[in-house]
TrEMBL record:
Primary role: Catalyzes the interconversion between ADP-D-glycero-beta-D-manno-heptose and ADP-L-glycero-beta-D-manno-heptose via an epimerization at carbon 6 of the heptose.
Gene Ontology terms: biological process: ADP-L-glycero-beta-D-manno-heptose biosynthetic process; carbohydrate metabolic process
Pathway given in the UniProt record: Nucleotide-sugar biosynthesis; ADP-L-glycero-beta-D-manno-heptose biosynthesis; ADP-L-glycero-beta-D-manno-heptose from D-glycero-beta-D-manno-heptose 7-phosphate: step 4/4
Pfam families (alphabetical): Epimerase (PF01370)
Reaction catalysis annotation: ADP-D-glycero-beta-D-manno-heptose = ADP-L-glycero-beta-D-manno-heptose
Top-level enzyme category: isomerase
Species for this entry: Gemmatimonas aurantiaca
Protein's name according to its UniProt entry: ADP-L-glycero-D-manno-heptose-6-epimerase
UniProt subunit comment: Homopentamer.
Amino acid sequence: MTEANSHRPLPLLSVLDTLPTRVLVTGGAGFIGSALVWALNQQGVDRIVIADRLGQDEKWRNLVPLRFEDYLEADDLFPRLESGALGDFDLILHLGACSATTELDATYLARNNFEFTKQLAHRALARGSRFVYASSAATYGDGAHGMDDIDNSSAALSRLRPLNAYGYSKHLFDQYAAQAGLLHRIVGLKYFNVYGPNEAHKGDMRSLVHKAFGQIRDTGRVRLFRSHRVDYKDGEQQRDFLYVKDAVAMTLHLAMSPAAGGLYNIGSGQAHSWLELTGALFAALGREPEIEFIDIPESIRAKYQYHTKAEIAKLRAAGYAALVTPLADAVRDYVQGYLTDDRRLGD
């Protein structure tokens, strides 16, 4: 039996010390949102209400294997909350957002990613619900001011310079929460480059692993952006890649840690190159690497990040002690356990 077809799944998440009673997950049909519902199901939690926009893609497939109490479209969430029809929640996981880094409609992003989050946070705090929301590593911009989550003051946050409208829409709420004195009472998660099962519906926002898997299947090779900076060779641009199973374990740890508050980086704490990532993918498929380099499109070249790496000392100080899944093991789990047979979490 070859390595490519001898998949052994990663262990299930460790049992949480405390569990939520009833949970609202916005964006719960999406990538990280549905993975959180899966992880909660692994802990025996199924009193979950999911709000999302299913649209016309196959996001609905993420929901099929999951256990939850109710589903509603996002536009119906606030009317049903205000009417009392949904009851109370001890935990709100707010993952619902437009996550397209190429979205140019800043008004839409401000309403969807900022105003909606602001309303939900205030309501959660007024009702005594634990509120955990998705910020983004995109708030750090090019990293010129560091990627450290320790200082959550308004002054520190004001120094950050997001490179796109999506990043700025997330940054807006981080700043608002700090200025309004809310941030220490809630948890904001700056997700880095998360990849893994349940991302198939994301189109151009899918991870390179998902895109490259299709390229290898169709052409036998992977296309990577060449470097346009002399200090980085082609394919040696670096990202902090984090497997979604690690991301949800970190998220739920912070959600169920009452002392945790403020912004936290959710990453591996390591920087790997695109060549390392694609090498792990070819290895998982039992194939020799074949790579073609192409120019970064002019439209995004000035905003392209060459290096990201999460500082996760704050996460560790909050008691998260689990080891991060090594890149090669995580890619193998994803490829052999999910991509090869087009499976979702829980299938």
